[in-house]
TrEMBL record:
PANTHER family: KINESIN-LIKE PROTEIN SUBITO, KINESIN-RELATED. This is Kinesin-like protein. Residues 1-83 are annotated as: Disordered. The gene is LOC117569329. GO terms for cellular component: kinesin complex; microtubule; nucleus. It comes from Drosophila albomicans (Fruit fly). Residues 44-61 have a biased composition (Acidic residues). Residues 1-16 have a biased composition (Basic and acidic residues).
């Protein structure tokens, strides 16, 4: 086993690469790092202030906001120097490898030198130390993971991206979603959010984040939103029994406290996307209007960067009134995710998924703020050479590995304090994933990464890559101000104090009720119409059948009569012929009888004694 000598000074600087990760135990002096922490991304801040846009520039909204002019957006900043929090979770396994040891303080993972046959890389054949914000061994459950990694961020009402990263089958999806018995981070966060804002929840979708802009919606748009939400929720699986169990278990695990403020109304929206083979798909699309099209068409969407804001153009965002509704939509989206069975996980996510919860708050002052929580379940990195992956699975794996590699490069660039005077210092545009997670990678929003590892010998090398990736993320120091919340002030909205807001709400509820009734009437009329059409069709069918039957019967009758006539004529002809033949025969018989009589007379004459004829006797 090759031992790492801490006093040995390498002659040249180590080459940085994500695929051949840096050895974190190499003397820090010889890592390609600056001597002191510098302010990063000044140039990127400038970029976000200018009017340039990537992909497409589309800030015009289909949503009317005419009466409520946006007086300008701003952001609530925190100037504190900070970096991402990186947590390590070890998956429970039957016989854990002895190659991984957690330090006494519980923050450093020490990997032993790999046995030669387990490593294709010399660098891996030495002891390494990886430090984390916290390490959770297999005994740590879902409750503690939430309390440590996510809960405080929700309480602070900050914009945050929670990212699960690890090899395939190491427990990323389990950590984020959990199972029926043990809820993961997302259901807990939803319960936390809905309990926190319990007294401020606004039941009408009056404010929406559209293309990264907060808009006050007109009544007709509100109705559309309510209709869309009703339609989509109707498609969701029924999880009420399961949800009740989950809800009680979560509330038993944590003590979420409702906020007291009365000056704010809160609206919560969720969206869910997957990035599959470098294409972005909406997992909450509405069903098609025509009933004939059973499956909603999967249309890939564009990620747009405009004025430093990143959003997905045309992404469905659904207004939710309870944790149950949000979890229902999460389950619906999950059913639409691309899963496949791989060598290491029978139900492996083949895409990166991002579930976003936007908490929009409008304050009595007229200020509207948004806290955005992004939960990102990354597809598992995979050794395509060892697992024998082929065909479409291989293509997927290559795409997954490439996008993870770009993510690694972005983190690497962010952790490198070597200042470069160009805006493209972080290559976040190189993959859809990094483009979408740009605010977290640039440090404008908080980033927490939960790294999952299966502590088995056979995954040793893959795990070292994951750990190196994590250690790169851990090194990042953002000096750019963290955006705590996005703010917008509306001039019209300032007047919308509570009484008028309540009036609005009542009016909207009335309209919704009316709309509901009209929809029911339309449904009833449609039903009647269909019924009438069916009856008419039936009547027409019967009429046609009757006519056809009558004409058929008439044709048969006419045919019979014709045949009867022909038969009669032929029999008369036959009778006449027979009569003539009989007559001829009778005449012949009469002639013959006459002849017989004549002959008889002649014979009598000859026999009489007076005859002159002498009879000679022998
Ligand atoms: N900490 C844990 N405790 C109990 N079971 C776990 C834990 N972590 C993972 N598992 C189980 O391991 C299996 C694989 O986990 P999971 O699907 O979360 O992996 P993954 O990292 O998301 O994989 P992929 O990237 O292939 O989708 C699941 O059956 C899950 O229940």
């Amino acid at each position: 086993m090759e031992k790492h000598d801490v006093h040995h000074v390498p002659h040249s600087r180590e080459v940085r690469s994500f695929l051949m990760p840096r050895d974190p135990s190499v003397d820090r002096r010889f890592r390609p790092r600056p001597n002191k922490q510098q302010r990063l991304f000044d140039e990127v801040i400038m970029e976000s202030d200018d009017n340039s846009s990537t992909d497409a520039s589309d800030t015009e909204s289909e949503y009317a906001s005419t009466n409520y002019e946006d007086e300008g957006s701003s952001t609530e900043h925190s100037e504190v120097e900070s970096g991402p929090q990186v947590f390590l979770r070890l998956r429970p396994v039957e016989s854990p490898s002895k190659l991984y040891v957690v330090s006494d303080d519980g923050n450093v993972l020490i990997t032993s030198a790999a046995p030669n046959e387990n490593s294709s890389n010399n660098m891996n054949r030495m002891e390494k130390h990886y430090s984390f914000s916290s390490i959770f061994d297999s005994s740590v459950g879902q409750r503690d993971i939430y309390d440590k990694c996510v809960g405080p961020k929700i309480m602070e009402e900050e914009c945050v991206t929670i990212m699960a990263y690890g090899t395939s089958g190491s427990g990323k999806t389990y950590t984020l979603l959990g199972d029926n018995a043990m809820a993961g981070v997302i259901p807990r966060a939803l319960e936390n959010i809905f309990t926190m804002y319990k007294n401020q929840l606004y039941t009408t979708p009056k404010v929406k984040l559209v293309n990264a802009h907060m808009l006050l919606l007109e009544d007709d748009v509100v109705l559309e939103e309510l209709q869309a939400r009703r339609q989509l929720l109707a498609l969701c699986p029924d999880i009420s029994a399961q949800y009740n169990r989950l809800h009680h278990a979560i509330q038993g695990d944590h003590e979420f406290v409702p906020l007291e403020s009365e000056d704010v109304s809160v609206m919560i929206w969720v969206s869910f996307v997957e990035i599959y083979n470098e294409l972005v798909y909406d997992l909450l699309t509405l069903p098609p209007k025509q009933a004939s099209m059973s499956e909603p068409r999967r249309k890939n969407l564009k990620i747009v960067c405009n004025k430093g804001q990143v959003f997905i153009k045309g992404l469905t965002s659904i207004f939710v009134k309870s944790g149950e509704e949000a979890i229902k939509l999460l389950r619906l989206g999950q059913q639409r995710i691309t899963y496949a069975s791989t060598a290491v996980n029978a139900n492996s996510s083949r895409s990166h998924c991002v579930f976003t919860v936007n908490v929009l708050k409008y304050h009595r002052s007229g200020m509207t703020t948004c806290s955005s929580y992004k939960f990102c379940d990354l597809a598992g990195s995979e050794r395509v050479d060892k697992t024998g992956t082929i065909g479409s699975r291989l293509r997927e794996a290559q795409r997954i590995n490439t996008s993870l590699m770009v993510l690694g490069r972005c983190l690497d660039a962010a952790s490198s304090t070597k200042k470069k005077n160009n805006a493209d210092v972080i290559p976040y545009r190189d993959s859809k994933l990094t483009l979408l997670l740009q605010p977290a990678l640039l440090g404008t929003e908080r980033l927490a990464m939960i790294v999952t590892v299966t502590p088995l010998d056979k995954y040793f090398e893959e795990n070292l890559n994951v750990l190196s990736f994590a250690s790169i993320a851990k090194d990042i120091i953002f000096k750019k101000p963290i955006i705590k919340q996005h703010n917008t002030r509306y001039s019209g909205f300032a007047e919308s104090n509570l009484p008028s807001a309540i009036r609005d709400m009542k009016r909207i509820e009335e309209l919704e009720e009316q709309n509901y009734k009209l929809q029911a009437e339309i449904d009833q009329m449609n039903y009647q119409h269909v019924l009438q059409m069916q009856l008419l069709e039936e009547k027409l069918r019967k009429e046609l059948t009757d006519r056809f039957q009558a004409s058929l019967e008439m044709n048969i009758k006419q045919g019979e009569e014709r045949l009867q006539k022909m038969l009669h004529m032929q029999s008369r002809e036959f009778e006449a012929k027979m009569a003539s033949v009989n007559r001829k025969h009778a005449e012949k018989v009469e002639d013959l009888e006459d002849k017989i009589e004549e002959l008889k007379d002649e014979i009598e004459e000859l026999k009489s004694p007076n005859s002159d004829i002498e009879i000679i006797d022998d």
